[in-house]
Amino acid sequence: MPELEDKSSPTLFDEIGGYEKIKDLVNQFYDLMELDSQFSELRKVHPKELDSSREKLTMFLSGWTGGPNLYIEK
Hints:
Layout: H1 12-16, H2 19-35, H3 40-44, H4 51-64, H5 70-73
Helix pairs in contact: 2-4
């Protein structure tokens, strides 16, 4: 019998600090990708403008960490 999820425990989303903290982490990731030449190959697979990529990753990580499923909803 599968275990039921304990809804009273904080999620990773909560422990990280919620949506704004995830957004900050995503922005740091993309900022570093643009500034550090070590990540040039990774940068090449992204569009020139990163606004949409930043938004999509933030929405995805929100749901993946146990917060609102913004990526799926959109």
